[in-house]
Amino acid sequence: MVQEKKIVKEVSGWLRVYDDGSVDRTWTGPPDVKFMAEPVPPHHEFVDGVATHDVKNSGQLRARIYLPKKNPDEENVKFPILLHFHGGGFCISQADWYMYYNMYTRMARSARVICVSVYLHLAPEHRLPTAIDDGYSALLWLSSLAKGESHEPWLNENADFNRVFLIGDSSGGNIVHEVAARAGKVDLSPLRLAGAIPIHPGYVRSERSKSELEQPQSPFLTLDMVDKFLSLALPLGCNKDHPITCPMGQAAPPLEGLNLPPLLLCIAEKDLILDTEMEYYEALKKANKDVKLLTSPGMGHSFYLNKIAVVKDPNTAAQTTGLIAGITEFVNNH
């Protein structure tokens, strides 16, 4: 008789871990939102002004490129690069999911940038720092393209390697900080890391913050998700005070000693983890880092990825437009 495997950990709707170590990421939540977590195939033709292409380098790094169609007056223009790290608590989601496709095609089109979105290894099969290694490997790959050591036509023919920005959603924002810190210790030239844009980064402490206790939970972030995803993602034996989830904490390298590029920290007023994101901001300021704050009033965690809310709620739509405009301004100024 075959013994039925048992669930040992479940994260509402998103993920189930079984006693044999296998992981099931089939969406079991409301069916009307399932489309946001479904893959979008790449298309080399321009659709609504953006073409997409999946690449894989010799080191097994995979990434999706979002290339905006050049306007008549952009014939000789090279576009800045946004190197993008997706969210999902280090445990779920992929670079080709519709929620990212919808946002980053729009970002490429509006901001006139090339987005390069990395397919990150996921926990618990690949615990941290694996996803950070993926992000850093992607930056080194861009550096090799800039040096002419390797070639990717979509980037070599259209990208400005002197203006590379890191950007990440939620846990991808944590990766932004970690990759930027690593990059500050090496010479990437002729590539220049021009800026870093963590959007609603997943910063927490082992002790609950006031905002975690008081702010409303949202479809994209619940306390259950915070606790369980991080327990599955952090190195074994570590808690939320780990430097990856608490870079302003005592266990982390002092921010004063890090060589960081200019930062645009994007926060949402009703984010469950707002307080610890603000702790990070204040710590950066105290360390005399070049950091600007972009706040989305009345919004919750990763609101801009929720296509249903962006379509149905005028305020969410307006705040998403404002977020893209703020990021575009930051890129244009650096």
UniProtKB/TrEMBL annotation:
<comment type="similarity">
    <text>Belongs to the 'GDXG' lipolytic enzyme family.</text>
</comment>
<dbReference type="Pfam" id="PF07859">
    <property type="entry name" value="Abhydrolase_3"/>
</dbReference>
<protein>
    <recommendedName>
        <fullName>Alpha/beta hydrolase fold-3 domain-containing protein</fullName>
    </recommendedName>
</protein>
<dbReference type="InterPro" id="IPR013094">
    <property type="entry name" value="AB_hydrolase_3"/>
</dbReference>
<dbReference type="InterPro" id="IPR050466">
    <property type="entry name" value="Carboxylest/Gibb_receptor"/>
</dbReference>
<dbReference type="InterPro" id="IPR029058">
    <property type="entry name" value="AB_hydrolase_fold"/>
</dbReference>
<feature type="domain" description="Alpha/beta hydrolase fold-3">
    <location>
        <begin position="82"/>
        <end position="304"/>
    </location>
</feature>
<dbReference type="GO" id="GO:0016787">
    <property type="term" value="F:hydrolase activity"/>
</dbReference>
